[in-house]
# Entry
Amino acid sequence: MCDTVLELLGIGWNVSTGIVLIVTPTQPMPICGTLLIVFTLLPWWPHAVQNAVDGKGQRFLLSCFGCGPLLTHEGVAASPEFKYVAAVLGGLPLMGTYLAGEIMGRNLLFGTTDSDLGDWAILIAIALNGAILAPVAVKVFDARTHEDADDTVPPKRASVWAYIVYASDMLSLVATVGTVGALWKRIRFVQWLVFGWFFCGFWPAIAAPPPMPTLRPAVPATGWQWFAHRILSSVLIVATVPPLAYVERLPSSERWVWPFAALVRTFIIFSMIPIGFVRHRHLVQAPVQVAPIVAPTAAMDWVIICACLIMVGDTTTRAVRLLLRQSEELAASEALSIKSDAEPGYGAVVREYGA
# Structure
């Protein structure tokens, strides 16, 4: 119930923020606001079409106006993998809209050209969109097939810390990346984004593809399913909190890939804070400025920096623990293998004493 309330709160806040941006006279904020409302309601419109075809008027209206979390679904749409992918991919256009708003005038970190009200509305909306991912992520990490399910063990629920981590990660990602996009040249910004996705998302998805817990085949090996699985996995790994809780389901030889990619992703995001600050100071001191660049409230700066510290601390701690654990397991396995090779087998003992 709490997850449903949080999801409805996120939808309502995104729509409200979109309305605020629509009435903002600064261009292109009205366009961003319109897109924000459309992208907020869009994930539920396919369900609305299906309900209209089935003649379910009440479900059609609820799906059209963003009340889809109140409805239940069947089949593939009810699987934890589908819900997780839908939550992340449904949030990407929203985050893209907020990024565009930052790059084109509402830079949340170190510089802004608009009112504090709009900036805080965007900041809270980003945090809500991140927190919404926590319960669906926990469900997919804990999911089992019907054959492996244990009815005596209650399903895991997202902890308060998980909500904080997912909100902090999304806020860190959008605020720092938006700052870089606002201060860097477009071509360099695009190159930086492609490099981050390729190294922190695409490479881990190819080198250590994640198995799906309930859908089959768990790891598609051919055709369009292979392509869709790898591309979606690459986006899921880089666009939100790295799914390190899922590493245990990977083969032992591949378990180092995701923690290593998570550490690289964390370093890239956190390193943008001093780079963005230096670049912003350079623009402020420039003799010619196209638009006034002023500092936002100190409170907003500290909220974003604290979110970055939470993201860095949580991801780094979990990634390092996984790498150390794998190192210990590999060392123990190697020692056991050496010991097994050094001890003579039963046949060797018989031949020795028989001679």
Observations:
- Residues 77-146+153-286+296-337 form one domain.
- The chain has two domains: 1-72, 77-146+153-286+296-337.
- Residues 283-296, 348-355 have pLDDT under 50 and may be disordered.
- The chain has 13 helices and no strands.
